[in-house]
Request: fold
Amino acid sequence: MLTLVPTPIGNIGDISLRAIEALSNADTLLCEDTRVTKKLIHILKERYNTVFKEEQKFISLHSHNEKSFVEKLEPSFFEQNIVYASDAGMPGISDPGQLLIKYALENNIEYDVLPGANALLTAFVASGFVETQMLFWGFLPHKGKDRVASLQGALHNGFTTVLYESPHRLQKLLLEIKEEEPNRKIFLGKELTKKYQNYFLGTAEEVLNTLNDNFRGEWVVVIEAGDTHNSSAVSQNDILDLDLPKKVQAKLISKITGENTKSCYQRLLKLQ
Reply:
């Protein structure tokens, strides 16, 4: 069968008994990074005296080779105990895993997904934003029109929204939110469950001042729910593709999104 096993996002004590059992009984381990999984197993052996099967096989399965790996699979591969473990957290949440599940469903292969450590839900609860509905946005595109459009969606969907962001682009994200929504409350979780875990709450400008250019670490950003912009069959990118002056584009975009025309115009100028 196939078992998806979540691994600790920082603190080794967060691993579950079921996860340890699945890892120790695996014949083959599919790993986002085999080095990380082997290190985890070494710690489990040393700290918890866990006994693992002898001659376990380790196979690299990451975002760059997941599709080609699954395309080459045969159902007979799962006649052994197969475990997939991501580097940290829940498989399938901004990590590989879902294509494996899809394959198992299509080929009538028994599978299980274990619950466990997850940065998304940890940060959502820690934010203190009193909402029962939440939207996970994952990583924003790195740059360009796609990033602008994606950030607009994250800010104006009406739900508390959770983003993952790298330390290299965190300052950029905070400056973008400061420009677009200066009064919106945001929550940042840094290095969740690790030694230097920290929480930051405030407007984007307040958080920037608190961080004082210290953006190292792993981050989860929770954005307080805002007003919902009107949806439209015509997207912002559709309008940007038209050969129109920026002021005209800004007026059209403001009509379909509810965004302030002036701020939209200033934002479009930065895309040049």
About this structure: The mean pLDDT is 93. Residues 109 and 156 are 40 Å apart (CA to CA). The chain has eleven helices and ten strands.
